[in-house]
Amino acid sequence: MNVFISYLKNYFKEIRLLNFLLTTFFVSILIALNYSVGIEKRIIAISPWFLSLAVFFIFYFIIFSTAYLLQSNKEFIINNKVKFILFIMIASLIFSLKIIHWNIFSLSTKLLKNPWDKYSSIVLQFPAKLLMILIALFFTWKSLYKQQSFFGFTTKNFNAKPYLLMLFCVVLLIISASTQVDFLQMYPKAKTIYFINNYTHYSWFYKLLYEISYGLDFISIELFFRGFLVIGFIRFAGINSILPMAVFYCTIHFGKPLAECISSYFGGIILGVLAYKTKSILGGLMVHLGLAWMMELGGYASLLYFNSH
Hints:
mainly alpha
Protein backbone atom coordinates (compact mmCIF):
# COMPACT_ATOMS: atom_id res chain seq x y z
CA MET A 1 0.00 0.00 0.00
CA ASN A 2 2.92 2.31 0.73
CA VAL A 3 4.06 1.81 -2.86
CA PHE A 4 0.66 3.01 -4.12
CA ILE A 5 0.80 6.08 -1.88
CA SER A 6 4.27 6.86 -3.20
CA TYR A 7 2.94 6.53 -6.77
CA LEU A 8 0.29 9.16 -6.02
CA LYS A 9 2.74 11.49 -4.27
CA ASN A 10 5.17 11.29 -7.17
CA TYR A 11 2.36 11.87 -9.65
CA PHE A 12 1.30 15.13 -8.03
CA LYS A 13 4.95 16.19 -7.90
CA GLU A 14 5.38 15.53 -11.63
CA ILE A 15 2.28 17.36 -12.88
CA ARG A 16 1.62 21.08 -12.57
CA LEU A 17 -0.87 22.02 -9.86
CA LEU A 18 -2.47 24.51 -12.26
CA ASN A 19 -3.26 21.66 -14.68
CA PHE A 20 -4.99 19.72 -11.94
CA LEU A 21 -6.96 22.73 -10.69
CA LEU A 22 -8.10 23.77 -14.19
CA THR A 23 -9.11 20.22 -15.08
CA THR A 24 -10.97 19.79 -11.79
CA PHE A 25 -12.76 23.10 -12.35
CA PHE A 26 -13.74 21.91 -15.84
CA VAL A 27 -15.15 18.68 -14.40
CA SER A 28 -17.06 20.65 -11.76
CA ILE A 29 -18.75 22.72 -14.47
CA LEU A 30 -19.70 19.56 -16.40
CA ILE A 31 -21.14 17.91 -13.28
CA ALA A 32 -23.12 21.04 -12.35
CA LEU A 33 -24.54 21.27 -15.88
CA ASN A 34 -25.47 17.62 -16.00
CA TYR A 35 -27.25 17.54 -12.64
CA SER A 36 -29.16 20.71 -13.46
CA VAL A 37 -30.15 20.16 -17.11
CA GLY A 38 -29.44 16.44 -17.57
CA ILE A 39 -26.88 16.28 -20.40
CA GLU A 40 -26.69 12.50 -20.64
CA LYS A 41 -30.46 11.94 -20.36
CA ARG A 42 -31.12 14.47 -23.12
CA ILE A 43 -28.63 12.81 -25.48
CA ILE A 44 -29.97 9.31 -24.76
CA ALA A 45 -33.51 10.56 -25.45
CA ILE A 46 -32.57 11.65 -28.97
CA SER A 47 -33.99 9.44 -31.70
CA PRO A 48 -33.36 7.70 -33.99
CA TRP A 49 -30.39 5.92 -32.45
CA PHE A 50 -27.83 7.10 -34.99
CA LEU A 51 -28.51 10.74 -34.09
CA SER A 52 -27.95 9.92 -30.43
CA LEU A 53 -24.72 8.17 -31.46
CA ALA A 54 -23.59 11.24 -33.42
CA VAL A 55 -24.32 13.63 -30.53
CA PHE A 56 -22.50 11.38 -28.04
CA PHE A 57 -19.52 11.27 -30.41
CA ILE A 58 -19.42 15.08 -30.65
CA PHE A 59 -19.89 15.44 -26.88
CA TYR A 60 -17.09 13.00 -26.00
CA PHE A 61 -14.78 14.44 -28.67
CA ILE A 62 -15.21 17.98 -27.29
CA ILE A 63 -14.86 16.90 -23.65
CA PHE A 64 -11.81 14.71 -24.23
CA SER A 65 -10.07 17.25 -26.50
CA THR A 66 -10.72 20.11 -24.07
CA ALA A 67 -9.34 18.08 -21.17
CA TYR A 68 -6.12 17.54 -23.13
CA LEU A 69 -5.88 21.22 -24.06
CA LEU A 70 -6.01 22.07 -20.34
CA GLN A 71 -2.72 20.24 -19.82
CA SER A 72 0.31 22.55 -19.96
CA ASN A 73 2.62 20.53 -22.21
CA LYS A 74 1.22 20.73 -25.76
CA GLU A 75 4.27 19.27 -27.52
CA PHE A 76 2.75 15.79 -27.56
CA ILE A 77 -0.22 17.19 -29.51
CA ILE A 78 1.88 19.33 -31.89
CA ASN A 79 4.35 16.53 -32.67
CA ASN A 80 1.65 13.89 -33.25
CA LYS A 81 -1.20 16.09 -34.46
CA VAL A 82 -2.78 13.73 -37.01
CA LYS A 83 -2.40 10.54 -34.95
CA PHE A 84 -3.51 12.29 -31.80
CA ILE A 85 -6.72 13.62 -33.37
CA LEU A 86 -7.33 10.18 -34.90
CA PHE A 87 -6.98 8.52 -31.50
CA ILE A 88 -9.32 11.06 -29.89
CA MET A 89 -11.86 10.27 -32.62
CA ILE A 90 -11.43 6.49 -32.21
CA ALA A 91 -11.90 6.76 -28.44
CA SER A 92 -15.00 8.97 -28.81
CA LEU A 93 -16.56 6.67 -31.40
CA ILE A 94 -15.90 3.44 -29.48
CA PHE A 95 -17.49 4.71 -26.29
CA SER A 96 -20.38 6.34 -28.14
CA LEU A 97 -21.16 2.93 -29.65
CA LYS A 98 -20.95 1.37 -26.22
CA ILE A 99 -23.20 3.80 -24.36
CA ILE A 100 -26.17 3.81 -26.73
CA HIS A 101 -28.84 1.13 -26.28
CA TRP A 102 -28.43 -1.86 -28.56
CA ASN A 103 -31.77 -3.24 -29.69
CA ILE A 104 -30.89 -6.91 -29.23
CA PHE A 105 -34.53 -7.29 -28.16
CA SER A 106 -35.68 -7.22 -31.79
CA LEU A 107 -33.42 -10.18 -32.58
CA SER A 108 -34.29 -12.22 -29.49
CA THR A 109 -38.05 -11.93 -30.08
CA LYS A 110 -37.63 -14.14 -33.12
CA LEU A 111 -36.16 -16.93 -31.01
CA LEU A 112 -37.69 -16.58 -27.54
CA LYS A 113 -41.10 -15.87 -26.05
CA ASN A 114 -42.01 -13.25 -23.44
CA PRO A 115 -40.42 -12.60 -20.92
CA TRP A 116 -37.24 -14.41 -21.94
CA ASP A 117 -36.82 -12.30 -25.04
CA LYS A 118 -36.65 -9.18 -22.88
CA TYR A 119 -34.42 -10.88 -20.31
CA SER A 120 -31.95 -12.09 -22.94
CA SER A 121 -31.86 -8.63 -24.53
CA ILE A 122 -30.82 -7.07 -21.19
CA VAL A 123 -28.28 -9.74 -20.27
CA LEU A 124 -26.67 -9.93 -23.71
CA GLN A 125 -26.00 -6.18 -23.85
CA PHE A 126 -22.85 -6.37 -21.71
CA PRO A 127 -21.02 -9.27 -23.44
CA ALA A 128 -21.97 -7.88 -26.88
CA LYS A 129 -20.48 -4.49 -26.02
CA LEU A 130 -17.38 -6.07 -24.50
CA LEU A 131 -16.89 -8.01 -27.73
CA MET A 132 -17.23 -4.80 -29.75
CA ILE A 133 -14.60 -3.02 -27.64
CA LEU A 134 -12.25 -6.02 -27.76
CA ILE A 135 -12.46 -6.17 -31.56
CA ALA A 136 -12.00 -2.41 -32.02
CA LEU A 137 -9.05 -2.21 -29.63
CA PHE A 138 -7.50 -5.43 -30.96
CA PHE A 139 -7.24 -3.97 -34.46
CA THR A 140 -5.88 -0.71 -33.01
CA TRP A 141 -3.31 -2.65 -31.00
CA LYS A 142 -2.36 -4.87 -33.95
CA SER A 143 -1.81 -1.80 -36.11
CA LEU A 144 0.17 0.33 -33.67
CA TYR A 145 1.06 -1.47 -30.43
CA LYS A 146 1.69 -5.13 -31.22
CA GLN A 147 5.10 -5.19 -29.55
CA GLN A 148 3.68 -4.42 -26.09
CA SER A 149 1.00 -6.10 -23.94
CA PHE A 150 -2.61 -5.73 -25.04
CA PHE A 151 -3.41 -2.42 -23.30
CA GLY A 152 -2.36 -3.57 -19.85
CA PHE A 153 -3.58 -7.17 -19.89
CA THR A 154 -0.45 -8.44 -18.15
CA THR A 155 0.49 -9.89 -14.77
CA LYS A 156 3.89 -8.19 -14.88
CA ASN A 157 4.32 -5.76 -11.93
CA PHE A 158 0.93 -6.91 -10.59
CA ASN A 159 0.47 -7.50 -6.85
CA ALA A 160 -3.08 -8.27 -5.68
CA LYS A 161 -2.64 -7.53 -1.95
CA PRO A 162 -2.73 -3.70 -2.05
CA TYR A 163 -5.84 -3.76 -4.24
CA LEU A 164 -7.59 -6.11 -1.82
CA LEU A 165 -6.69 -3.70 0.99
CA MET A 166 -8.21 -0.84 -1.01
CA LEU A 167 -11.45 -2.82 -1.33
CA PHE A 168 -11.47 -3.57 2.37
CA CYS A 169 -11.11 0.16 3.15
CA VAL A 170 -14.28 1.08 1.22
CA VAL A 171 -16.58 -1.57 2.71
CA LEU A 172 -17.87 0.80 5.43
CA LEU A 173 -18.46 3.53 2.85
CA ILE A 174 -20.59 1.17 0.75
CA ILE A 175 -22.55 0.03 3.82
CA SER A 176 -23.25 3.67 4.64
CA ALA A 177 -24.17 4.54 1.04
CA SER A 178 -26.55 1.59 0.78
CA THR A 179 -28.89 3.26 3.29
CA GLN A 180 -29.35 6.33 1.09
CA VAL A 181 -32.43 6.83 -1.10
CA ASP A 182 -30.53 7.80 -4.27
CA PHE A 183 -28.35 4.69 -3.90
CA LEU A 184 -31.39 2.41 -3.63
CA GLN A 185 -32.93 4.05 -6.67
CA MET A 186 -29.91 2.88 -8.65
CA TYR A 187 -28.88 -0.40 -6.96
CA PRO A 188 -29.04 -3.31 -7.25
CA LYS A 189 -28.80 -3.03 -11.02
CA ALA A 190 -30.42 -6.46 -11.20
CA LYS A 191 -33.76 -4.78 -10.49
CA THR A 192 -34.08 -4.44 -14.24
CA ILE A 193 -34.67 -8.21 -14.56
CA TYR A 194 -36.93 -8.68 -11.51
CA PHE A 195 -39.89 -9.21 -13.85
CA ILE A 196 -38.74 -12.84 -14.24
CA ASN A 197 -39.71 -13.56 -10.61
CA ASN A 198 -43.23 -14.34 -11.79
CA TYR A 199 -42.07 -16.82 -14.43
CA THR A 200 -39.59 -19.12 -12.68
CA HIS A 201 -38.88 -20.78 -9.34
CA TYR A 202 -35.17 -20.33 -9.98
CA SER A 203 -34.98 -16.56 -10.29
CA TRP A 204 -31.73 -16.59 -8.27
CA PHE A 205 -30.04 -18.42 -11.16
CA TYR A 206 -31.11 -15.80 -13.70
CA LYS A 207 -30.08 -13.01 -11.35
CA LEU A 208 -26.68 -14.66 -10.99
CA LEU A 209 -26.33 -14.80 -14.78
CA TYR A 210 -27.19 -11.10 -14.89
CA GLU A 211 -24.54 -10.27 -12.26
CA ILE A 212 -21.90 -12.21 -14.20
CA SER A 213 -22.92 -10.37 -17.36
CA TYR A 214 -22.88 -7.06 -15.46
CA GLY A 215 -19.35 -7.84 -14.31
CA LEU A 216 -18.21 -8.13 -17.93
CA ASP A 217 -19.04 -4.47 -18.36
CA PHE A 218 -16.21 -3.56 -16.01
CA ILE A 219 -13.73 -5.44 -18.17
CA SER A 220 -14.88 -3.11 -20.96
CA ILE A 221 -14.48 -0.07 -18.71
CA GLU A 222 -11.00 -0.90 -17.43
CA LEU A 223 -9.73 -1.99 -20.83
CA PHE A 224 -11.00 1.20 -22.44
CA PHE A 225 -10.20 3.82 -19.79
CA ARG A 226 -7.10 2.57 -18.03
CA GLY A 227 -5.87 0.33 -20.85
CA PHE A 228 -6.49 2.37 -23.98
CA LEU A 229 -6.84 5.94 -22.67
CA VAL A 230 -3.87 5.75 -20.26
CA ILE A 231 -1.48 2.98 -21.28
CA GLY A 232 -2.34 3.37 -24.96
CA PHE A 233 -1.95 7.17 -24.89
CA ILE A 234 1.37 7.15 -23.01
CA ARG A 235 3.28 7.21 -26.31
CA PHE A 236 1.64 10.57 -27.10
CA ALA A 237 1.00 12.26 -23.78
CA GLY A 238 3.01 10.42 -21.13
CA ILE A 239 1.81 11.30 -17.64
CA ASN A 240 -0.57 13.88 -19.14
CA SER A 241 -2.85 11.03 -20.27
CA ILE A 242 -4.24 10.52 -16.75
CA LEU A 243 -6.30 13.68 -16.10
CA PRO A 244 -8.11 13.69 -19.50
CA MET A 245 -9.00 10.04 -18.95
CA ALA A 246 -10.40 10.89 -15.50
CA VAL A 247 -12.56 13.65 -17.05
CA PHE A 248 -13.92 11.28 -19.69
CA TYR A 249 -14.46 8.62 -17.01
CA CYS A 250 -16.43 11.04 -14.84
CA THR A 251 -18.84 11.86 -17.70
CA ILE A 252 -19.92 8.23 -18.02
CA HIS A 253 -21.20 8.41 -14.43
CA PHE A 254 -23.62 11.24 -15.17
CA GLY A 255 -26.59 8.92 -14.70
CA LYS A 256 -25.37 7.79 -11.26
CA PRO A 257 -25.95 9.37 -7.81
CA LEU A 258 -24.11 12.71 -7.50
CA ALA A 259 -21.66 11.47 -4.86
CA GLU A 260 -20.71 8.50 -7.04
CA CYS A 261 -20.20 10.79 -10.04
CA ILE A 262 -17.91 13.15 -8.12
CA SER A 263 -15.90 10.31 -6.58
CA SER A 264 -15.49 8.69 -10.02
CA TYR A 265 -13.25 11.60 -11.09
CA PHE A 266 -10.86 11.15 -8.18
CA GLY A 267 -11.14 7.36 -8.38
CA GLY A 268 -10.29 7.60 -12.07
CA ILE A 269 -7.14 9.57 -11.24
CA ILE A 270 -6.05 6.97 -8.66
CA LEU A 271 -6.67 4.01 -10.98
CA GLY A 272 -5.06 5.94 -13.83
CA VAL A 273 -1.89 6.55 -11.81
CA LEU A 274 -1.71 2.87 -10.86
CA ALA A 275 -2.16 1.79 -14.49
CA TYR A 276 0.44 4.35 -15.61
CA LYS A 277 3.01 3.13 -13.08
CA THR A 278 2.40 -0.64 -13.31
CA LYS A 279 1.43 -0.78 -17.04
CA SER A 280 -1.26 -3.27 -15.95
CA ILE A 281 -5.05 -2.93 -15.67
CA LEU A 282 -5.58 -6.10 -13.60
CA GLY A 283 -5.49 -4.26 -10.27
CA GLY A 284 -7.98 -1.67 -11.45
CA LEU A 285 -10.19 -4.43 -12.79
CA MET A 286 -10.09 -6.18 -9.41
CA VAL A 287 -11.06 -2.97 -7.58
CA HIS A 288 -13.77 -2.05 -10.07
CA LEU A 289 -15.38 -5.50 -10.08
CA GLY A 290 -15.14 -5.71 -6.31
CA LEU A 291 -16.80 -2.32 -5.86
CA ALA A 292 -19.52 -3.09 -8.40
CA TRP A 293 -20.50 -6.40 -6.84
CA MET A 294 -20.27 -5.02 -3.29
CA MET A 295 -22.65 -2.22 -4.31
CA GLU A 296 -24.99 -4.83 -5.75
CA LEU A 297 -24.83 -6.76 -2.46
CA GLY A 298 -25.46 -3.54 -0.55
CA GLY A 299 -28.52 -2.89 -2.70
CA TYR A 300 -29.87 -6.41 -2.16
CA ALA A 301 -29.28 -6.23 1.59
CA SER A 302 -31.01 -2.86 1.94
CA LEU A 303 -34.01 -3.99 -0.10
CA LEU A 304 -34.35 -7.12 2.03
CA TYR A 305 -34.12 -5.04 5.21
CA PHE A 306 -36.69 -2.44 4.17
CA ASN A 307 -39.07 -5.06 2.75
CA SER A 308 -39.01 -6.95 6.05
CA HIS A 309 -39.81 -3.88 8.18
